[in-house]
Amino acid sequence: MKSLIINQMGCVETITVADPYPSKNEVIVRMEACGICGTDYAKYIRGVTVDEWGHEVVGRIVDSNNNDGLLNKLVTVRTSWSCKSCDICKGNTPFKCKNWSRVRINGFSEYIAININGLVLLKYDNMIESDILIEPMYVAMSLVNRLSPAPYDQVAIIGNGTIGLLSALYLMTKGVKHITLFGRRTMSKKMDIGRKWGLECHSYDDLPNYLSNCNKIINTADYSTMRDVILCSAPFSDITFNGISEKSLVPLDMDVWHFKNLTISPSFPHPQQSFDGAVEFIQDKRMLLSSLITHEYPLDEGEKAFDTLMRSRDDCIKVVIKNN
Asked: Between vectors from CA 253 to CA 248 and to CA 259, what angle results, nearest 5°?
């Protein structure tokens, strides 16, 4: 079968490898489509050798390993799951599990061996490309729910990529009226969609002018923006984040954080729990969300897919690689 890797030259390469064989707790999924996420892109721009990546997968089970009820089912993938056996899990707090496991796959492959604990069964049988947004939707919902926003709250979203836009749409369905979206530039396809959805859109340069009016902040941009977010935010603001960054060490002004009395917390998407809400949300808005899929490439053109994402960041929202 064919798979994409980042080779020792730092380039995306299509290689031929042996078909996967399922172990006792695995099934084989034929990849139909796999989205390129921020983690995948970060590996690409660093040029590190990679053969484990691509988790925004939608596919169909073609070998159920004697789990006959799973054969031919349409599925997506959760990237982590709790152990279900420790005292924390038995105490009904599995999201705090310290023994959680993580799926290790190359989603940019024709076929993938996936642990059955990583499977999310879809409630419909016909796939469209926007179904690859289910896992990002789970993250967006985690960010929003972390803040518990009320309809009257002023909410700012830093970063206008896939998770930023999904967070905004989820906020709208919860009745939040005042949502401000910040991106690197105001003229981009991402901002066009934001404005079409009725969002107030600004560039990062406007953070000092507008962020002080927001009491809830969702940061989906890279970690380096956290310093400006802290400096510009209003006292007693709640901030949650889920950034992806080449550098995870970011200097923060702790005295500003302290005296503003800010509450800052990650979205804690791991170990991941039920995907039911994300599946239902995407299923209900599949056609609307199809506008977020801006580019599609076959598996054989993986290098072109990543190159497009690097060269056309303002016009790319979600780039999808499909099985040949």
From this structure: 135
